[in-house]
Design the sequence.
């Protein structure tokens, strides 16, 4: 039985970390694809990772390429192709350039591996995953966006930092679009099952929610050139692993809603079951009136960007 084939479209900051994590977790063989101008960079990263193998003990093969034929019949694609934000930019400012790139990427993936499971990371996420879905014609089970995992993880990290308790025991979810209108569902956040609302005063919680909404921008500002890459890579790997190992993890992901949470025809962050069937199910639950209002607000923001794609 051959190993699964995981192709990373875009071998920049996130792509390089995806390759490392996929190899270390022994998820399968890895192809790092980038444009011809960056072929040397991805070939070099692949070689470096092959030379890490003796120390880490993984057997995965890793290649760098700018030839679409090399991704043929991949089981999983993780797409980071595009440009990242610079300070002062919203994710939406990337739309024009990244949409053009996504059109190229989606049509090539459709040709090379029509049955693959595809995780999109490129921003503006909710519009990019929608664009991939529309252009490729893939089924809704095959296409998902990585955003909610990252936003929820950031919320978890900040709660752990605030309480001094283990991040392992912090659970919470952030729904909606991958932008400033995202919706942290604070009333369901717990540490070891104890509601955070009993552990952290309301005004501090509001500050933590705010920091979560702008957490990506906080890093963009610190870097001065580029956006977060370690945590985004790990989140997408968790999603790929759940698919490849049929784990059926429940992860907030940008999934295509067709009536769930009264949303129809848009990819937006919702609790998603990922297993061997890809996006197997969206888990719905009752929202409070305030949460519904916030979800409608974030949906409006998503619709606006999606409409700008003209797809
Ligand atoms: N096909 C494949 N790769 C491409 C293409 C294309 N048509 N166009 C650009 N790329 C590559 C670039 O050459 C670059 O190596 O995508 C890579 C992007 O890497 P970085 O610039 O390092 O960006 P990164 O930090 O990895 O973020 C990528 O994810 O989180 C989002 O907002 C972020 O949209 C950005 C994306």
Sequence:
């Amino acid at each position: 039985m051959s190993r699964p084939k995981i192709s990373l479209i875009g071998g920049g900051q996130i792509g390089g970390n995806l390759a490392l994590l996929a190899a270390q977790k022994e998820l399968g063989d890895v192809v790092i694809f980038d444009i011809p101008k960056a072929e040397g960079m991805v070939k070099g990263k692949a070689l470096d990772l092959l030379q890490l193998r003796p120390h880490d003990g993984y057997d995965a093969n890793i290649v760098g390429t700018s030839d679409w034929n090399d991704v043929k019949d991949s089981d999983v694609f993780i797409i980071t192709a595009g440009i990242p934000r610079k300070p002062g930019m919203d994710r939406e400012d990337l739309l024009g350039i990244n949409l053009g790139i996504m059109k190229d990427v989606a049509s090539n993936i459709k040709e090379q591996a029509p049955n693959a499971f595809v995780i999109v990371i490129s921003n503006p996420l909710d519009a990019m995953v929608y664009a991939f879905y529309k252009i490729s014609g893939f089924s809704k089970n095959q296409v998902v966006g990585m955003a909610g995992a990252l936003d929820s993880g950031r919320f978890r990290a900040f709660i752990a930092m605030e309480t001094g308790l283990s991040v392992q025991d912090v659970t919470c979810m952030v729904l909606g679009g991958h932008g400033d209108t995202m919706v942290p569902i604070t009333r369901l956040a717990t540490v070891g099952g104890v509601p955070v609302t009993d552990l952290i005063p309301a005004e501090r919680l509001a500050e933590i929610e705010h920091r979560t909404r702008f957490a990506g921008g906080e890093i963009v500002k610190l870097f001065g050139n580029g956006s977060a890459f370690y945590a985004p890579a790990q989140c997408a790997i968790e999603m790929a692993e759940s698919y490849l190992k049929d784990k059926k993890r429940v992860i907030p992901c940008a999934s295509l809603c067709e009536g769930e949470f009264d949303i129809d025809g848009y990819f937006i962050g919702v609790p998603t079951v990922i297993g061997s069937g890809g996006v197997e199910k969206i888990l719905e639950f009752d929202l409070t009136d305030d949460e519904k209002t916030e979800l409608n607000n974030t949906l409006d923001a998503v619709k606006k960007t999606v409409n700008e794609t003209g797809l």
Remarks:
- Residues 289-309 form the longest helix (21 residues).
- The longest strand covers residues 264-275.
- The mean pLDDT is 97.
